[in-house]
Design brief:
Elements (H helix, E strand, L loop, with lengths): L5 H21 L2 H18 L8 H13 L6 H10 L5 H12 L12 H19 L4 H17 L7 H11 L4 H10 L5 H14 L5 H13 L3 H14 L5 H13 L5 H15 L4 H13 L3 H14 L4 H13 L3 H11 L2 H10 L3 H8 L10 H14 L4 H11 L5 H13 L3 H14 L4 H11 L6 H14 L5 H13 L3 H14 L4 H17 L6 H11 L11 H22 L7 H16 L7 H18 L4 H15 L4 H13 L6 H11 L3 H13 L3 H16 L3 H7 L5 H13 L3 H11 L8 H18 L8 H18 L4 H13 L3 H14 L6 H11 L3 H14 L4 H13 L3 H14 L5 H12 L1 H10 L3 H10 L1
Helix pairs in contact: 1-2, 1-3, 2-3, 2-4, 2-5, 3-6, 6-7, 7-8, 8-9, 9-10, 10-11, 11-12, 11-13, 12-13, 13-14, 14-15, 15-16, 15-17, 16-17, 17-18, 18-19, 19-20, 19-21, 20-21, 21-22, 21-23, 23-24, 23-25, 24-25, 25-26, 26-27, 27-28, 28-29, 29-30, 30-50, 31-32, 32-33, 33-34, 35-42, 36-37, ...
Length: 953
């Protein structure tokens, strides 16, 4: 290179340096790293051609460049280097850099690159000081670099304080030197820190926001709240546009103040800091932490992702991300985050939730001995071993020894639950009582004690006493306490008190559908309770058993319905104003929440305006879906509301909705919405809708076809569909009609539509059409309706032909293999069905209904082990399905695992209060009632009881 190009290369290196600084401020660390590496390459080329006079600015630029690598993680530096590795330039560049400092670096061996770059910067600053020893800025830059090296490598020797002293001695009125010196003074020398910050403010009081912030943090650390607040406010006034640290300080300060809305105020402070500097680590992490404490787990994810972009190896960020994902139900992603954070306790707890007990033991026993485990981790280990083998004598000794430790209240409650699972009820009761004695302010302890006491009729009054105390003690509402209290009151035949308790809860929280469901159940039980007073106890137990076997019709009075509607309307306006205040970006979430609330109101017992309310809920959900079509929870809500409006609550339609949700690939158009409204109406309203529809549609033939659909929906005259098809309507209309008929269980008409368009649709839709025909054939064969007039054996054969055609076009569809497995099972080809269902699970382990169908096959073959295994697998896919929990409870009951059966049955009832979980509890009542056990052991039971038992059998 000719020396005349040295100024040009200098300008290029400086431009790259400025560009890198700007990219770091913007948070674009990959681009910043690339610019810094390019600049170093240019400087390395300049070194060969500069004269001694130019050496000063070369050393200064090299030092500044290397110092800025402190803000970039090693992985990003290595990634920037790897992208340019093809040219070979950067490998030569790094060889030349580290050769100058007698250091070797291998990118693939995991060295901390930042430490090496900072050491290079220190070498350059020291050489620069040798040339200009009286330049104070050189000493200041050297001190800052030494301070950065000390932070990331505590073992390194640091002389930053000496460097700052030299800078202050040369230029004592520069406020930057005093601030930097104060920040690096050891934390136990608070007076020296304060002195340095005060001297910095004396040098420059107006434009010295950094010193004001340092004073604020210092006073905050010593709990001088008022002084700290004054410093942060002064810092904001001195630099309001780019001063994010003052807002972070105010957020931390508000967390220390004992006020009711401290978390909300802190959250707004941290959010303001992220708006000023979106890519600052501290503000994003604190915002995520406060959102997690407020229960806004979804809002905490985005700032945590930003934190990990800046510091990919930060364990606290990974751990907090794992906690948020765990609360949102993303257990696998949460597990990966905990692994990166290397937090054994959280990893073990998550394995425990996933029922992977062997992994829990492997994770926790990787330590050399049990003494290294914390109490919480040791309890997780005991829980895992207990689930694998309850009867181990050594395990029981370990649990008893653990109970003698000085445990906190939460661990005592968990230990009581462990005893409860081992059928050691007296030990469990003792632990729950100890937890309540330690502190009276934990809901879980009261709830666990009351749940245990409710198992026996003799201890029901004590359980009610504990629950009443807990409800009065805790200001925050907990639905579990109310549900258990009402259940105990029902068992004592105190229906009026149970209704009174529920109505008080509904007045406060009217959008909770579980409260309305339990209220409807009480009304139904009370109605049948009054039939026969003399035999009321047996009749009540009979109705509790029969709750899951028939639909409960509400007997709410018009007064209750009127009060409920008023309360719900008030709650909607409150949710719209309070929850989404000053947050226009949350419009989608607002629509979703309002849709859920209106859905709950429409499903309330005997609500007087069901159809309009549910239609409004559907509109809200569709608005939310337009903002984010990929949100599966909104799609599920739309499907639930549509099913509620159409009053399709059979298991057949449930399976249809689950499978069709996998198949649907066509977006909703306005015509589809009109068809849905058309099919929901009746009488004069339907005629007006037909007129509006005919006015909107350009194709008159299609409009006539829609009229035919409307008539078929009313009187089910299937011959009309054949005549309508012959009118040469478009295939899009006929296909839409088929979907409408399928949703309304007019299966024969739907099959005619699909068969008509199978030769007309484009090739990319043939897979879906063949699969829909196979699905309709499966539903028709499953109904076995003699009025349909079809040969069901031939129907199954034709369904298999169509699903085979679908698989020829796409053999990687789990839904197709699921339908094939169901058709083969209905054709009594169990082995072939097993292969198809296993193939579906192989393609998509989260495919609904596949494991449930395999469970039916193995259960019929009396292979109990595999049947239970696939039932648990289906439960992992659909954890909110109460019927699956009921089946698992039956399995546990037949295996004499009574404690597990009670847990599963209670979960089933919580998810589906009208389900069959009550029948399992009824069967277990004799097992868990101590009074009945004693009576049977001493007298063998009276003859009257024997006769009753024989009648029941």
């Amino acid at each position: 290179m000719d020396r005349k190009y040295v100024p040009a290369y200098k300008g290029l290196a400086e431009s790259l340096y400025e560009c890198a600084k700007k990219r770091i401020e913007e948070g674009l660390l990959n681009r910043a790293s690339h610019c810094l590496l390019k600049a170093i390459r240019v400087i390395d080329e300049l070194r060969k051609h500069v004269v001694s006079k130019q050496l000063k600015w070369v050393l200064k630029l090299v030092a500044d460049l290397n110092q800025h690598f402190y803000m970039i993680s090693d992985s990003i530096i290595y990634e920037s280097h790897s992208k340019n590795e093809m040219d070979g330039d950067f490998e030569i560049l790094f060889d030349s850099i580290f050769k100058s400092s007698n250091q070797e670096l291998s990118f693939k061996n995991g060295f901390e690159l930042k430490i090496h770059f900072l050491k290079l910067a220190i070498d350059s600053y020291e050489k620069l000081i040798e040339i200009e020893p009286n330049q104070s800025d050189h000493w200041y830059d050297l001190g800052c670099t030494q301070s950065h090296l000390k932070l990331i490598s505590p073992s390194s020797s640091s002389e930053c304080l000496n460097s700052f002293r030299n800078a202050i001695r040369m230029k004592p009125m520069d406020h930057r030197y005093w601030t930097a010196y104060g920040c690096n003074v050891p934390n136990d020398q608070l007076l020296i820190k304060q002195h340095c910050f005060v001297r910095s403010l004396q040098c420059n009081e107006k434009n010295n926001h950094v010193a004001w912030n340092c004073c604020g943090y210092l006073y905050l650390e010593t709990n001088q709240i008022e002084l700290s607040k004054l410093c942060f406010l002064q810092s904001q006034s001195s630099n309001p546009s780019t001063n994010a640290h003052s807002w972070i300080g105010l957020g931390l300060l508000n967390l220390k103040i004992d006020i009711s809305n401290a978390l909300q105020i802190s959250s707004s402070n941290f959010k303001h800091a992220t708006l000023i500097k979106p890519n600052q680590f501290d503000s994003n992490f604190n915002l995520a932490f406060v959102n997690y404490q407020l229960g806004r787990h979804h809002d905490a994810i985005h700032p945590l992702r930003k934190c990990l972009q800046m510091r990919n190896s930060d364990r606290n960020s990974w751990n907090l991300l794992g906690l948020c994902l765990e609360q949102l139900g993303n257990l696998q992603e949460s597990l990966e985050a905990f692994r990166k954070a290397n937090v054994k306790g959280n990893i073990a707890r998550l394995y425990l939730k996933l029922n992977q007990f062997e992994n829990v033991i492997t994770t926790l026993e990787s330590s050399s001995n049990h003494d290294e485990l914390s109490d919480t981790q040791f309890l997780h280990l005991l829980q895992a071993k207990c689930n694998l083998n309850q009867n181990d004598v050594n395990l029981k000794k370990m649990i008893d020894e653990f109970s003698n430790r000085n445990l906190n209240q939460q661990l005592i409650v968990e230990l009581g639950k462990l005893y409860y699972g081992m059928n050691r009820l007296q030990d469990a009761k003792k632990q729950f009582e100890n937890a309540i004695k330690i502190s009276n302010d934990q809901i879980d302890a009261h709830l666990s004690y009351a749940s245990l006491a409710s198992l026996s009729s003799s201890t029901l009054p004590n359980a009610l006493k504990v629950l009443n105390h807990a409800i009065c003690k805790f200001p925050n509402f907990d639905s579990k306490l109310i549900h258990l209290q009402v259940k105990i009151l029902i068992m004592n035949d105190q229906f009026d008190q149970a209704k009174f308790k529920l109505m008080n809860a509904i007045r406060m929280y009217p959008w909770m559908g579980s409260l309305w469901t339990q209220f409807a159940q009480i009304q139904s039980l009370q109605k049948d309770y009054k039939i026969s007073i003399s035999n009321h106890h047996e009749l009540k137990l009979h109705w509790i058993k029969q709750v899951g076997e028939k639909t409960i019709k509400s007997t709410c009075s018009s007064l209750y319905s009127h009060i409920a509607s008023q309360l719900l309307q008030k709650s909607f306006s409150k949710m719209a104003i309070v929850t989404f205040q000053n947050d226009p970006l949350q419009y989608k979430q607002r629509m979703k929440v309002l849709a859920q609330l209106y859905y709950e109101m429409g499903m309330a017992p005997k609500y007087h305006s069901v159809v309009p309310t549910l239609q409004y809920a559907l509109r809200m959900a569709q608005h939310a879906l337009r903002f984010d079509p990929s949100d599966l929870t909104i799609r599920e809500l739309v499907a639930a509301i549509s099913v509620a409006i159409s009053k399709l609550d059979s298991d057949l339609v449930k399976e249809c909705n689950v499978v069709l949700d996998k198949l649907t690939s066509v977006n909703l158009e306005w015509r589809d919405l009109e068809i849905v409204n058309l099919t929901r109406s009746d009488g004069n309203a339907q005629l007006s809708l037909i007129k509006n529809l005919m006015g909107k549609m350009n194709d008159q033939m299609d409009a006539q076809f829609m009229c035919v659909i409307a008539n078929v929906m009313v009187d089910r005259r299937n011959k009309m569909i054949e005549a309508a098809i012959k009118k040469k309507s478009t295939w899009q209309t006929v296909l839409t009609a088929g979907d409408v008929f399928t949703g309304h269980r007019i299966l024969k008409a739907a099959r005619l539509c699909y068969l008509h368009v199978v030769n007309q649709v484009p090739s990319d839709l043939l897979f879906i059409v063949h699969l829909k025909i196979a699905l309709v054939d499966l539903f028709l064969a499953s109904t076995q309706d003699p009025n349909v007039g079809l040969d069901y054996v031939e129907m199954l054969k034709e369904g298999l032909v169509h699903v085979e055609q679908a698989l020829l076009r796409n053999n990687e569809s789990a839904a197709a293999y699921l339908i094939a497995g169901k058709l083969l099972l209905a054709s009594e080809l169990a082995e072939n069905a097993k292969y198809a269902l296993q193939k579906a699970i192989q393609l998509d382990p989260r495919q609904p209904l596949a494991n449930l169908t395999l469970y039916k096959i193995y259960y019929a073959a009396q292979n109990w082990t595999l049947a239970e295994q696939h039932l648990w697998a289906e439960h992992e896919i659909q954890p909110r399905d109460g019927f699956l929990l009921y089946l698992l409870a039956v399995f546990a009951l037949e295996s004499n695992a009574h404690a597990e059966a009670i847990k599963l049955a209670q979960k089933s009832i919580r998810l589906d209060p009208s389900g069959k979980g009550w029948s399992v509890l009824e069967k277990l009542k004799s097992v868990w009632d101590p009074a009945k056990k004693v009576q049977q052991a001493t007298t063998g039971g009276t003859s009257q009881q024997v006769k009753k038992n024989q009648k029941k059998k």
